[in-house]
Amino acid sequence: MSDGHRICDYGDSTYRQDFWEGQGRGYEDAVERRVLASLLPRSGRRLLEIGAGFGRLSGEYRMFRQVVLLDYSLEQLQYARSRYGDDGFLYVAADAYRMPFQACAFDAAIMIRVIHHFENVPAVLGQIRNALADSGAFILEYANKCNFKAMLRHIAGSNDWNPFTLEPVEFVELNFNFHPEYIREQVLNLGFALRRTVPVSWLRLGLLKRALPTSLLMLGDRALQLTGWTISPSIFLDLQLDKPVAASLLDSEDPLDLLRCPVSGSSLRWVDDALISDNGLRWAMRDGVFDFRQPEA
Ligand SMILES: C[S@@+](CC[C@H](N)C(=O)[O-])C[C@H]1O[C@@H](n2cnc3c(N)ncnc32)[C@H](O)[C@@H]1O
Fold first, then answer.
1. Considering only the top CATH level, what class is 15-291?
2. What is the pLDDT of residue 107?
């Protein structure tokens, strides 16, 4: 719990091994990479990935000069760092509700398989809006409450929630599914323009995945994406922010120009091996990861 909201803390969980590696999700992973590649700009200066986890997708961002991976789990980020190193990457352990970034510091942001852990969606989206510069791109993936499987279960009477109503459903503690209209309303309210909606992962069914090769599943998925029907289990949004900006921070690659104290909002300076804010809070650097979860005592 922090500032009144619950956090889904992955800590040193075995998410990578238990959910991805050898767990029969090659199709989901490949489809997400393909859609991401089609939505990412050709080049960019600084990208923020929120809830980057162990960096599953972070190798796709080489067109950016600098990539900042943010996650609440220090351990997931340390694993990501062991994969990608420090050249062009910065690792930030922080709560997405309280991001340690100066305003307008990024020209793009990505959040995939993360928003379902937030009970206060507008608060986190507001943080992302603040971190993005004018015309900033934001690629957002969310789990769709109103997907065809949930609809069938609802009609058969085996769901205890209604996929057609707009409010988020918390089906397991701190795991929410969202109605497309709900998410649309949240992003539009914050001044994002919706450039494209891509419904994905249509063929996420054990039987199909066992019977068909990933390449064929991807072809089928591509065809279904073209329908534009928002009844798939996962939906990608390609968003763009329109906001006036006083000054851009995008040209500096110095972390001190980019980071700020998540409590006071003040700039930071190095003292020994920690960052200190104007009100004396000390934020540690742990094995190459900036730790903004709690200040040091
Ligand atoms: C399901 S994993 C997705 C990881 C990655 N985006 C991917 O697709 O492989 C969700 C991630 O969100 C992170 N997360 C959850 N709540 C968070 C919060 N309040 N602030 C920052 N990260 C958070 C978790 O630590 C976890 O790494």
1. alpha beta
2. 93
